[in-house]
Amino acid sequence: xxxxxxxxxxxxxxxxxxxxxxxxxxxxxxxxxxxxxxxxxxxxxxxxxxxxxxxxxxxxxxxxxxxxxxxxxxxxxxxxxxxxxxxxxxxxxxxxxxxxxxxxxxxxxxxxxxxxxxxxxxxxxxxxxxx
Amino acid sequence: xxxxxxxxxxxxxxxxxxxxxxxxxxxxxxxxxxxxxxxxxxxxxxxxxxxxxxxxxxxxxxxxxxxxxxxxxxxxxxxxxxxxxxxxxxxxxxxxxxxxxxxxxxxxxxxxxxxxxxxxxxxxxxxxxxxxxxxxxxxxxxxxxxxxxxxxxxxxxxxxxxxxxxxxxxxxxxxxxxxxxxxxxxxxxxxxxxxxxxxxxxxxxxxxxxxxxxxxxxxxxxxxxxxxxxxxxxxxxxxxxxxxxxxxxx
Lengths: 131, 250
Ligand SMILES: Nc1ncnc2c1ncn2[C@@H]1O[C@H](COP(=O)(O)OP(=O)(O)OP(=O)(O)O)[C@@H](O)[C@H]1O
Ligand SMILES: [Mg+2]
Ligand SMILES: [Zn+2]
Fold this sequence. Notes:
The complex is a heterodimer. Chain A has a single domain (2-127), classed as hypothetical protein PF0899 fold. Chain A is of the alpha+beta class. Chain A has a 3-stranded mixed β-sheet with strand order 2-1-6, with helices on one face. In chain A, strands 4-3-5 form a 3-stranded antiparallel β-sheet, with no helix packed on it. Chain A is built from 4 helices and 6 strands, in the order αβαβββααββ. In chain A, helix 2 links the parallel strand 1 and strand 2 (61-65). Chain B has a single domain, classed as Rossmann fold (3-Layer(aba) Sandwich). In chain B, strands 2, 3, 6, 7, 8, 9, 10, 11 and 12 form a 9-stranded mixed β-sheet that branches. The mean pLDDT of chain B is 92. By secondary structure, chain B is an alpha/beta fold. The chains are: A alpha+beta, B alpha/beta. The interface between A and B is medium-sized, with 31 and 37 residues.
């Protein structure tokens, strides 16, 4: 399962941070709509890895971020809801978000050159305590 | 502070890989992809379990060379995905496995993202060494790959620079070396491909070793299958040099 490696990556980053700078005030794990990870499964793996690392007391929140795209040719902006992707296309993009370029064209002008403005993948946002 | 979990994921995936060999060239069409495949076969014949990664996102070709194109690949999921076996002991990870042949853009930001994602999801379990085919040129994209690899892999990292024997090509390599050396301090391998007769080389000292693969007029026809490729003059010569100079790779 893909979620397990993502969870492992997240927990290792948190572990490195806690070891070097102590527990932060807040940890947000931002989940991009495009990659569409399974939040429940990811949470279970994170719990397991956090316990393994002796970081049981570390707290974090999941936050979803909408995927937005902007066409480099015509400037049109759109979101995933507009596209009506099939389940198998979603699964492909789940593994490799850039696969979107092989699947989706700009809904307005058909260009394949566009930017993913937000909601691509998973990132960890660490907010430090006030000193 | 914003952190990217994929870096640690990729480290985890590469943890038991002894060596990675990014295959690069200053010019296109010198034989990187063909050599990547031949090297995978020669290293396999040394008893190593070989992984191959195609990072030429806008022009991936390894799946053709390994004959994967007509097969619908069933992805085995296990901490990411286990790349399919394309030959006994050789596994191929390629973006086309996910895009069903569709190609990805070569725009800088996207290609770095896609390569890091591939490294994060590819489970190289049971693989000893990984060959990485790259797009033509030694520019930002290739240098970023070297930098990325040095961040996620702690074993041997040995770029394989492929060139043709012509004076101009050798001069180009010689000129690019400074650029490469600035990001990759370690030893490198030079492959002079399509070799005929002699060459005048003035940069022996810059490489751990130099392999010479002869011009093989029948190579193109041989690329229809790995069995044919194994019978080729070019492969026989490469295999001989790899096997007599194993140290070159470790
Ligand atoms: N030793 C050789 N003798 C004769 N032909 C060769 C030899 N090596 C490679 N070729 C031929 O050269 C052509 C280019 O090879 P290949 O696609 O491997 O190059 P490349 O460097 O990967 O190209 P690109 O830069 O486009 O990715 C092919 O037609 C291949 O068959
Ligand atoms: Mg190539
Ligand atoms: Zn457009």
